[in-house]
Write a structure and sequence with these properties.
Elements: H1 3-12, H2 16-25, H3 36-63, H4 85-89, H5 95-98, E1 102-106, H6 113-126, E2 131-135, H7 136-149, H8 152-161, E3 164-168, H9 177-190, E4 195-200, H10 207-211, H11 214-226, E5 228-232, H12 238-245
Parallel strand pairs: 1-4, 1-5, 2-3, 3-4
Helix pairs in contact: 1-2, 2-3, 3-6, 7-8, 8-9, 9-11
Length: 246
């Protein structure tokens, strides 16, 4: 069997990473002295890496994070905004995702809430967890649309299965009775089955009153706060400070 036939068969079996690796490595001078097992091991490693990178690209694309470039390793800790590096570093592991714990981020406009939420989202994708980003108005807009399309329960189930759900701009607009019940359903379904990040200007102490209905508010807050990490950012706008620096 010639080389071209081997490459074609690898491509037919969708072993693209292995095909590319085989073509490149077989002509490398420093690979000529490798044993078959050593050479084959490298080709298999390349296939595995190719698949991991392909999955990562797919996860990042599907997450639709508002700030696709946000990265935990590049967070600016120089500004005095109540964000401690140790608190972020302590969450750079998969335990909070595996244990279905939440992250609640609050602070004034421009304090970096969205960046921090997206950085955690992108980090989750890099570690193989499915992630979806929604702005508060869009979350309920999609719920309303699913009702009109007759896919409400299917949409709820899709939200439930996401490893990490990010809800940004929490409290940007008020809740209708239908929205309030939808929000409870989302949080209830995800309780101890997935992690949720909620970011918004409204202080956590005001969330109960904002949700409105005491019974629903009690249930939602209990599920959110029971297993959560809190980041309460302070200070002026990071956007203005960045512009001043430039």
């Amino acid at each position: 069997m010639n080389t071209e036939q081997t490459i074609n068969k690898l491509n037919e079996m969708k072993l693209t990473g292995m095909s590319q690796s085989y073509q490149e490595r077989r002509v490398m001078p420093d690979h000529k002295d490798l044993s078959f097992d050593e050479f084959f091991g490298l080709v298999v490693d390349d296939e595995q890496l190719y698949r991991k990178n392909k999955r990562l690209k797919r996860l990042l694309r599907r997450s639709k994070c508002k700030i696709s470039s946000a990265c935990l390793e590049e967070i600016d800790y120089r500004q005095q905004r109540g964000l401690l590096k140790t608190n972020v570093v302590n969450l750079q592991n998969t335990s909070w995702l595996e244990n279905h714990q939440n992250i609640l981020i609050t602070g004034p406009t421009g304090a970096g809430k969205t960046y921090l939420a997206c950085a955690f989202g992108n980090w989750a994708c890099r570690n193989g967890f499915t992630t979806s980003y929604f702005r508060w108005p869009r979350l309920f807009g999609d719920m309303l649309a699913s009702r009109g399309e007759g896919s409400y329960l299917k949409h709820l189930k899709r939200l439930e299965k996401i490893d990490l759900l990010i809800i940004d701009d929490f409290g940007l607009n008020s809740l209708s009775d239908v929205d309030r019940k939808d929000f409870f359903e989302i949080i209830e379904d995800r309780y101890m089955t997935g992690s949720t990040i909620i970011a918004g200007q409204l202080p956590i102490k005001d969330w109960h009153e904002f949700i409105g209905d005491p019974t629903i508010a009690d249930a939602v807050m209990d599920r959110l706060l029971h297993v959560s990490y809190k980041f309460e950012l302070k200070g002026g706008s990071m956007r203005k400070k960045q512009k001043d620096i430039e």
